[in-house]
Amino acid sequence: MSSQPPTEAQLNLAALAESPSPRTMRGLRKIQSHQHLSSRPPLFSQVSFDRASAGPEGLSKPAKLDSPVRLRTHRRARSNSDASSRDSPKLTARRPGRKTGSGFGLKRSLLEALLRDGPQQGNVQEALQELRYLVLSTRVEADGDGMSTYRVYLWLILLDIPPLPTDHYLSLIHRGRSPAYAKIRNDTFRTLATDPLFKRRVTEASLIRLLNAVAWKIHDAKNKNKAKSRSSSRRREMELLINTPPSIAEEEPSTDGMTPDSMASSNSGTSAIKPGITNETAVYVQGMNVLCAPFLYAARSEVEAFALFHSFVTRECPGYIRGAMDGVHRGLNLVDRCLEIVEPKLAAYLFSKGLQAKLYAFPSVLTLCACTPPLPEVLHLWDFLFAYGPHLNILCIVAQLILMRDTLLKSSNPNKILRSFPPLDAKEIIALTVLIVRKIPEPLYAELIDHAK
């Protein structure tokens, strides 16, 4: 019986078996690794083949990317350390175009291009209208964590906030603890405590610094207003003593030709007080820490976050930090009224269970829905609110209730459901809010605009 001669592979294995050593074992692993790599088509060769078979039109089109996160995850299929240099495929694919702007695409979006290039022919109002429309029609480009390289500049433009010198912010920090420091420290460690994205990017120390600086800023403004009020009151008293002879009939000032507003300012002595900051304004209220969180998360520096947050609370919603937060309570009342107009059946059912907005919507009104995760969706919702007005947050809360309508009507205990709103879907909420706006009467919409002032 004739025997077949041994193959080359069998001879190699026999030789390795006779003299086992670390060097020969490494050689065996190299042979096996090389055979494994050779048995599969190279990744880049397959890409080149697909593009070549697509014809001239396919070559002219850039490679289609699913998302920036997937691009980072699958950038390299395997390490080349276990393959020899002669077996590694050559990169014959066309070099991608230079990424500009946010880096999340090969071409800048219209929104980013408008922010970078500025208004055409110096028409600022027209450019702002176009900017708002682009925010509504196209989302701000961001990665999976909600980070965008130009969102903070969009917010600064929409809120009309000029550049702030860094030295101004540092001077507030170097003053040390503000009168509200103890309250701030009692809240900061709880700020979005269950959100890993926020905890990874924003430290408690930065929250404390920013809130403490804002407290100093408001404290100084209140003291300045009090000094102006006292000086103007003394000046009026001196003028009355000098220009008006003593007379029983004129002990009380005349009100002829005075409007109610001027009478109120004259009697209270606050005519010189800057709009937004009054003597009743609190330097810090509970909840400001959560309202501050998205600004710190989206900004590229604490100075930008400070400028955004301070201007927002003192100009856009000063009623939220004044007195007993009367602006927030007016907003809660408006949630009930708007829900009753837009969705009367749901409103009647909630009212029958004793569920007014003040029992479940207080955090959402105070923080502009920043208390409801996920944080990337909060940022997209804020893009819309800053473009068309923070007062629309009231209607966004109504929209969330309408999205929960079927679940609430079927539940015998809707209070349990309303304790925590479902995760935000900014696109769906914004689309529904745009429809709700059309159903709100003009007088009620005017109250929406003014409720936070």
Automatic annotation (TrEMBL):
Which species? Aspergillus mulundensis
Where composition is biased (Polar residues), the residues are 1-10, 262-271
Q: Which InterPro entries match?
A: Rab-GAP-TBC_dom (IPR000195), Rab-GAP_TBC_sf (IPR035969)
Single biological process term from Gene Ontology:
negative regulation of septation initiation signaling
Pfam families xref list: RabGAP-TBC (PF00566)
GO cellular component terms, A-Z: mitotic spindle pole body
Which GO MF terms are attached to this record? GTPase activator activity
* Matching SUPFAM superfamilies: Ypt/Rab-GAP domain of gyp1p
Q: Where is the signal peptide?
A: none
Positions of the region Disordered?
1-104, 245-272
Name of this chain's protein: Rab-GAP TBC domain-containing protein
> What range(s) does the Rab-GAP TBC domain occupy?
145-389
From the broadest rank down, the organism's phylogenetic lineage runs: Eukaryota, Fungi, Dikarya, Ascomycota, Pezizomycotina
